Amino acid sequence: MSGTLRTLDGIDVAGKRVIVRADLNAPMKDGRITDDARIRHAAPTLLELADKDAIVIVLSHFERPGGKVVAEFSLAPLRTSLEEQANRPVRFIPTDWTNDLHVSAISAARPGDILLMENTRFHPGEEANDSRFSQTLASLGDIFVNDAFSVSHRAHASVEGIARLLPSFAGRGMEAELSALERVLGDPQRPVGAMVGGAKISTKIAVLENIVKRVDILFIGGAMANTFLHAQGISVGRSLCEHELGKVAERILKQAEAQNCTIVLPRDAIVAKELAPGAYHAIAKIHEIPEDAMILDLGPTTVADIANGFALLRTLLWNGPVGAFEIEPFGLGTFALAKVAADLTRSGKLLTVAGGGDTLAALAAAGVSKSFSYVSMAGGAFLEWLEGRDLPGVTVLKTPTLERRH
Ligand code: 3PG
Ligand code: MG
């Protein structure tokens, strides 16, 4: 749906109870956060609101407890990290959403306080977008702010239902995310290209179909390129390949041609007989992949093709690694291209936006996460947005534009 995003600009929050939906679903291991990017992302909006004397009530899910209290999915261990990032005391409220602890905590709160509520997914009404649970949440505040793009593909009570019941706005993180996305696929500076990798085309058919309509050039890497090569009659040996999706790959190639989108496929590859650290490997031309080998990375000619392509662009979207980057040495293609994109970004020649699934880990392994113009922390939401779909949590924050009638 088109419309203007309602932001926090000019909103008076002093003395008001402001509910902020954040995505604190950060990766954790043995009770410790392994990547605090999502916490850092949430902090600025909380701080801005607390500085403006709002009573700030933070809602988030953590993992998938399935509508019941599961101790290991408590948000309690995240409190300290949030407190550090927001540079303000944060109080954790261990409500189970039926014991009313949330109600008493909020009535005792003072302007400038930040309260972190327990996991919203401990209540079955959250994922069901149950209107009674939305009411319960809405009754805690005067204003609702969604600062969690990464969960906005979910029509859940704390994301969508509540936004219908209170004056609702986009937080600063949400605003930044949507503006980055707009600059890459909405109204980009051209030429605009996309680098799409990852293992399977089955999970990205709708993404590819939408992208070929919007970009001038599409580079395809990762195992998903094998399905395209196979569709063109090229033998890919024992490589990961969705043989049954040959027709889909052909259809995407045709759609690209009809839309004047150039598709660049690998001309050579790094092949090996096993996917193991330090496995014996060789460079093979794409028409000469040995029967008993697997394609595990782009070859040097292809890396050079794509690097040259990047140099001609003004805007680049990146989703997915182009090789088996987790296993050394099959990350070289991904790392080399990530560095080229990062260098072009640093010199002001290219706007780069990356996101979705493994992309973050791949860019982090390449050491360039901070050099891209924008790196989205969203997984599923980023992919749904790449598919051109309306995200329920975003749509509800927009003031509809009146369509002109003829
Ligand atoms: C994510 O990790 O992508 C978001 O936090 C959404 O989580 P979900 O896939 O469990 O809805
Ligand atoms: Mg997840």
Protein architecture, described:
The chain contains 15 helices and 19 strands. It is of the alpha/beta class. Strands 6-7-5-2-8-9 form a six-stranded parallel beta sheet, sandwiched between helices. A six-stranded parallel beta sheet has the order 12-11-10-16-17-18, with helices on both faces. It has a three-stranded antiparallel beta sheet with strand order 14-13-15. Strand 6 (90-93), helix 3 (101-108) and strand 7 (114-117) form a beta-alpha-beta unit. The longest helix has 15 residues, at 37-51. The model has no long low-confidence stretch (mean pLDDT 95). Residues 25, 379 line the site of magnesium ion.
> If you compute it from the alpha carbons, what radius of gyration comes out, rounded to the nearest whole angstrom?
23 Å
Strand content is: 15-25%
The ligands found in this model are:
3-phosphoglyceric acid, magnesium ion
Q: Describe the largest sheet.
A: 6 strands, parallel
State the end-to-end CA separation.
Answer: 19 Å
Number of helices: 15
The SS-based structural class is alpha/beta
Shape: elongated
- The amount of helix comes to 25-40%
* Average pLDDT, all residues: 95
Order of adjacent strands in the largest pleated sheet: 6-7-5-2-8-9
Low-confidence stretches: none
Q: What's the count of strands?
A: 19
Q: What order do the helices and strands come in, and which of them pair?
A:
Elements: E1 3-5, E2 17-21, E3 28-29, E4 32-33, H1 37-51, E5 55-59, H2 79-86, E6 90-93, H3 101-108, E7 114-117, H4 124-128, H5 131-138, E8 143-146, H6 157-161, E9 168-170, H7 172-186, E10 192-196, H8 205-214, E11 217-220, H9 224-231, H10 246-258, E12 262-264, E13 268-272, E14 281-285, E15 294-298, H11 300-311, E16 315-319, H12 332-346, E17 351-354, H13 359-366, E18 374-375, H14 380-386, H15 392-395, E19 398-400
Parallel strand pairs: 2-5, 2-8, 5-7, 6-7, 8-9, 10-11, 10-16, 11-12, 16-17, 17-18
Antiparallel strand pairs: 1-19, 3-4, 13-14, 13-15
Helix pairs in contact: 1-2, 8-10, 8-14, 9-10, 11-12, 12-13
